Amino acid sequence: MTPLEQMKEKAKTVWSDFASMENFTGMAAPQLVKFANINANDRVLDVACGTGVVALTAARSGASVTGADLTPELIKRAKENSKAFELDVDFHECDVEYLPFEDASFDVVVSQFGHMFAPRPLVALGEMLRVLKPKGTIAFSTWPPELFMGSFFRINGRYGPPLPEVAEPPVLWGNVDIVTRRLSSLADNIVFDRNKLIMPGLSVQHIRNDFETGAGPLKRMVEKFSDDPTKLNALRSEIDSSISHYFENNHLRMDYLMTKAQKI
Fold first, then answer.
1. 95 exposed, middle or buried (CB, 10 Å; 0-12, 13-18, 19+)?
2. What's the pLDDT tens digit per position in 2-41?
């Protein structure tokens, strides 16, 4: 197995229990659907769809929606959600770097905090645009590197294994200049906007405990360092410091970037 394949297999484990966060990330889904200007007649692909919060929100508007995600547990949950909501969304377990859809199949391609974790950004972007119709809309939400989640992922990166040589850090997708450069030869009418998510918590430590026991890289890191209290305490101290800059009135403010462009 190549380092890239190992990274993707590890990602399946890291995000396998992300369903515990779906109500939180679901609050951002209507903003992306509105920003992408999804209409009832559109055929929509939600890339790295997780448990389907964006896909199902788009489907409620009457759009014909397909969801795709690398992690089988999340696709299973997405299908359960679709059935519970009585919506007909077509969910697929697949890799954003190898989408199993025909060229120019969709009017809109979206991703909420998902495609940014693909190791090779230009490969992922190329696939997302390949399946998008000419003049179709690509829209996504990402975490800016200079704000809380960017800091959070950088800390996790320092304590975790190095990325494979061909991989790039996910938070670069939150840098306006880098996103513009990646899109500029493939799309035009690039538009940016910002929004925020609010995570309630009684204290900085309470918020950090939510991350440790919820889903994602910090949970796995805490498990890994359970027999190394010195390293675990250092990690927790850095996370607490990062949270404290954005914690007030019993909530953590998590600002994010939204990008929209039209395929050339």
1. middle
2. 999 999 999 998 898 888 889 999 999 999 999 999 999 9
pTM for the full predicted model: 0.95
What CATH number did the domain enclosing 106 receive?
A: 3.40.50.150
DSSP-derived letter for residue 235 is H
List, in sequence order, every residue forming a beta bridge with 163; answer none if it has no partner. none
Check if the beta carbon of residue 56 is closer than 8 Å to that of residue 50: no
Do the Cβ atoms of 44 and 106 come closer than 8 Å? yes
**What are the φ and ψ backbone dihedral angles of 245, each rounded to 5 degrees?**
-70, -20
- What the block records as the tokens of 104 is 């120019």
- 3-state SS, residue 195: strand
The answer as to whether 50 is a domain residue is: yes
- Spatial distance between the Cα atoms of 175 and 241, rounded to a whole number of angstroms: 22
Q: What is the rounded distance in angstroms from the CA atom of residue 132 to the CA atom of residue 111?
A: 13
* 3-state class (DSSP) for residue 219: helix
The neighbouring-strand residues paired with 112 are 141
Total domain count, the chain: 1
